[in-house]
Amino acid sequence: MSQLIVEKLTISYSQSVKALDNVSLAVNKGECVGIVGESGSGKSTLAKVLLGLQPYKEGDITFNGNSIVPKKKAELREYRKQVQMVFQDANSTLNPKLPIWKSVLEPLDNFQEVKPSILNREETSRKELAMSLLEMVGLDAHLLERFPGELSGGQKQRVSIARALSLEPGLLICDEPTASLDVTVQKQILQLLKNLQEKTEMTILFISHDIRAVTFLCNKIMVLKDGIVVDRFPLEDLYHYNRHPYTKALIKAASF
């Protein structure tokens, strides 16, 4: 059974403009699925809807067998505990006035009932807890007391990933997490996500305009254009002759 099911999701900004048009998607537990498309294709809108940040009227979303109804606060809170997000701009998710160790623990402070198996909350101090999370993403203890403004872009994105992993989510949504980083750091973050996914077997929905990043990380790919799903395929069929022309254009532009 699929862990996340999106059926016929449509988001309309007007009668003539649809951000998403009859989008359907199924993600199985432990899979890494990529959503790829250029700017304006509807990728970020889909991410917002999946996080409950944007309401929807047409379509249905099911997670772990339960329908997601954003207007019901109790259900939405439980859902957000299970679904975490890594955004493109880490600066927008980290409080500039908080030291890194406090920022990392914010999700666990908001959901104190969560006791992830990757951590032992009873036998560690809060700083030790934060350090364990930072170590998971390859950051050193000397960063604990630093503030976001003192970190590089790559370090801040690693902190954002650590925050998201703190709740041991069933689904991690990554919305262009490497777009604002230089090429070398992009590769490091992608490798980190790949290693974490293999280690924890968490489900990842990876959203990007860069088909190279998507093919590096994901085993299934869905292509969005103007809010419409124009192609979907397993990674091994990337070069299949019947790929959609838009997919072929993305591949050509990426200079594979």
From TrEMBL:
PROSITE patterns xrefs: ABC_TRANSPORTER_1, ABC_TRANSPORTER_2
Q: Which UniProt keywords apply?
A: ATP-binding, Nucleotide-binding, Transport
Tell me which Pfam families the record gives: ABC_tran
Question: Which Gene Ontology molecular function entries are recorded, alphabetically?
Answer: ATP binding; ATP hydrolysis activity
Q: What sequence ranges are listed for the domain ABC transporter?
A: 4-251
Keyword match ATP-binding: yes
Record-level GO BP terms = transmembrane transport
Protein name per its UniProtKB record = ABC transporter ATP-binding protein
**Organism, per UniProt?**
Sutcliffiella horikoshii
Tell me the organism's taxonomic lineage: Bacteria, Bacillati, Bacillota, Bacilli, Bacillales
